[in-house]
Amino acid sequence: MVTDRNDALKLDAQDSLAALRDAFVLRDGLNYLDGNSLGPMQQCVTERVQRCLEKEWGQDLIASWNSAGWYRLPQTVGAKIAALIGAGKDDVAVTDSTSVNLFKVLAAALSMRPDRGVIVSERSNFPTDLYIAEGLAEFAGRGHELRLIDSTDELNGAIDEDVAAVMLTQVNYRTGELHDMADVTSKVHDAGAVMIWDLAHSAGALPVDLAAANADFAIGCGYKYLNGGPGAPAFVYVAPRLQDKVAQPLSGWFGHTSPFAMEPSFKAAPTIHRFLTGTPPILSMVALDAALDIWSGVSMEAVREKSVRLCELFIALVEERCAGYSLSLASPRDAAKRGSQICFAHENAFPIMQALIARGVIGDFRAPDILRFGFAPLYVRFVDVYDAVDHLLDVLKTEEWRQDRFMVKGAVT
Ligand SMILES: *Cc1c(COP(=O)(O)O)cnc(C)c1O
Known about the structure:
Layout: H1 5-13, E1 31-32, H2 43-57, H3 64-67, H4 73-82, E2 92-94, H5 98-112, E3 118-122, H6 127-139, E4 145-149, H7 155-158, E5 163-169, H8 181-190, E6 194-198, H9 210-213, E7 217-220, E8 235-238, H10 282-292, H11 300-321, E9 328-329, E10 341-345, H12 349-358, E11 361-362, E12 364-366, E13 370-374, H13 382-398
Parallel strand pairs: 1-11, 3-4, 3-5, 5-6, 6-7
Antiparallel strand pairs: 2-8, 7-8, 9-10, 10-13, 12-13
Helix pairs in contact: 1-13, 2-10, 4-10, 5-6, 11-13
Bound molecules: pyridoxal-5'-phosphate (PLP).
């Protein structure tokens, strides 16, 4: 049990992942609990981007498409992510944004079930996922219905013979609730529908096994737990059994079987390549590429174990030390049903989070009343958990959050 700061320091001293933190650029005094929104930078990323700027682009120019491996980056970077999500190395491509990749795989899924008109998702899914589905349903002009459920318990009732595709985010962006990927996928398949998983808050946060779950499609972000940098390219997974069978609507030249044949009509590559669209953003690709090297040799089981311990400690300390301040746990209490983030609800969540941020404890606020803290095991320490709760208690006790300066909302919360 952790009763004081020294106990937390002892846990860090015994932590087998502790040394990985040194790879990250994290200034002194910063308690960064927002890596689930934007992962921090590693020193190797600066060096890699600099080399790309000065040598590959600056000196070698167009030759670098071949000589520096630019052309193959969607696959080489994809293979590094594949190792983290239980996918074959040729089954993941890095391209576009999560939103755009969702558009592609959802369109592909709908085309696989032309006689079915319903897309199922959760009302609490990340908004862009729902907006993309809404846009596609309207634009396709086939009158697709978006059927939203309020919990996984409703899934059985929501899936019938009209459902073409089910798209869920494995770890809920707000509460951190974790779906059982294998169980849900098998129910969806039993109903004859196609399963799409959004791994935005899973990749790099916990072990994922897409192949074992027999998932059809998956997508996810490069800039959260994968630390690829702001707006890093996203990834897309397509089950090998589907890669040469499904079509996607953004059929750009990078998805062509032979882009440099410059043929006038599209012929889809027989591989994951057909989910590429156009020229990749190379500076961003090399940043993500370098950021991913830290994972080689890291066991996702060890990551998960530390993640659970960090989260359990945070919950225990908040509930014990901040009792009486009207905070209520908004994440599942059972660690097996959670990702790597913890949320507490409080009616003054917004100014409380602003006061914490001013003290260097960086979490975020999610409307309407959620304080969200992400615990990325590669660099978050047990002592960070301890200190964060110390600050939270102080902010609540002194009512520091009532200051006017903490009431002002920026464009991004
Ligand atoms: C972060 C996140 C996204 C972000 O999509 P972008 O296209 O990168 O803006 C999408 N879906 C989920 C579930 C997310 O958590």
